[in-house]
Automatic annotation (TrEMBL):
<dbReference type="Pfam" id="PF00657">
    <property type="entry name" value="Lipase_GDSL"/>
</dbReference>
<dbReference type="InterPro" id="IPR036514">
    <property type="entry name" value="SGNH_hydro_sf"/>
</dbReference>
<protein>
    <submittedName>
        <fullName>Carbohydrate esterase family 16 protein</fullName>
    </submittedName>
</protein>
<dbReference type="InterPro" id="IPR050592">
    <property type="entry name" value="GDSL_lipolytic_enzyme"/>
</dbReference>
<dbReference type="GO" id="GO:0016788">
    <property type="term" value="F:hydrolase activity, acting on ester bonds"/>
</dbReference>
<feature type="signal peptide">
    <location>
        <begin position="1"/>
        <end position="21"/>
    </location>
</feature>
<keyword id="KW-0732">Signal</keyword>
<dbReference type="InterPro" id="IPR001087">
    <property type="entry name" value="GDSL"/>
</dbReference>
Length: 299
């Protein structure tokens, strides 16, 4: 059994309740890394009722080549029309000045939020979102930890630095929401913990143990931040979804979920789509769980 190591964060700010019908569109503004990316660019075709993720052509440029969780939540596991603006970018870290991404062209979470602020945040005629019909989500962390767990110095204190930067961006989004003068708003924060990816299995036992300890610290502090956020934002209803349970359930019994095992990748029946990302079949499981979480409020 693989050790549960790598932490991801999905924070969804939900504004309003979903209703069906073209005139009652729900807008989803998504931010994150390769677990969420579909290759959306702001100067391309924007989402429409017949093309709810806009550009590129569905399912987009995902890390696994097929559908991912946000694909299926936008088009399958929802009971209302959802138009998704997916700013997520493969390889993203929270802020490139804190953790350098694998390429300088990668858009960090900071960059993605700024893209939103420079485009759809202004409520252009092409994107007439309101605070009663919009969902904001963040799934980030895998690259921050993978690219920094081995750093010298007080690495545990660095987790606080990362989370400070992330929640500063959440506050920016909340400020935009408040400017719209909404009567109510909801925030769903989802912390997910994924397994030691196949790449990390090639590293030493010492490296694996070090990363595991950093991830445990990051997750603990993340849960504390979410709790504090709930306390300090009475106008925001907040949920915590920990996908550790979702990953653990599958990886403890892969065959019962239709997977061959917990280490194979790249073929039909494999849990892993490649050596770093879960397959589309695994993403379908996460999509269903997230949809169930939101079912009574959004979908």
């Amino acid at each position: 059994m693989l050790s549960m190591l790598l932490s991801l964060f999905l924070s969804i700010v939900l504004l309003g309740s979903g209703v069906s019908g073209i005139d009652d569109v729900n807008y989803w503004f998504s931010f994150g890394d390769s677990y969420t990316q579909t290759g959306f660019v702001t100067n391309g075709t924007l989402p429409t009722p017949g093309n709810p993720l806009g550009n590129p052509t569905y399912p987009g440029q995902t890390a696994v080549g097929g559908t991912n969780w946000i694909d299926v939540d936008t088009t399958v596991y929802n009971n209302s029309l959802v138009l998704t603006y997916n700013y997520a970018y493969g390889g993203a870290t929270i802020d490139a000045s804190l953790v350098t991404p694998y390429e300088p062209t990668v858009l960090s979470l900071t960059d993605q939020v700024n893209e939103f602020l420079d485009t759809a945040a202004g409520k252009p005629t092409s994107t007439p979102w309101t605070s009663s019909n919009s969902l904001f989500s963040i799934w980030i962390g895998i690259n921050d930890i993978g690219n920094s767990y081995y750093l010298s110095g007080d690495r545990y204190a660095f987790d606080d630095t990362l989370l400070n930067a992330e929640f500063a961006l959440v506050q920016k989004l909340c400020a935009i929401i408040l400017c719209i003068r909404s009567s109510y708003a909801f925030c769903v924060n989802e912390a997910s913990l994924t397994t030691l990816d196949i790449q990390m299995l090639a590293q030493s036992a010492t490296s694996q143990a070090t990363e595991k300890a950093i991830i445990a610290d990051f997750n603990y502090k993340l849960a504390e931040r979410i709790s504090a956020f709930k306390t300090n934002h009475s106008w925001v209803q907040t949920w915590l979804w920990d996908s550790n349970s979702a990953f653990t359930a599958v990886l403890n019994s892969p065959t019962s979920y239709g997977f061959v095992d917990v280490t194979s990748y790249g073929n039909p029946g494999d849990f892993w789509g490649n050596n770093y990302h879960p397959s589309s079949a695994a993403h379908d499981i996460w999509g269903k769980e997230i949809a169930l979480l939101l079912e009574r409020t959004v979908w």
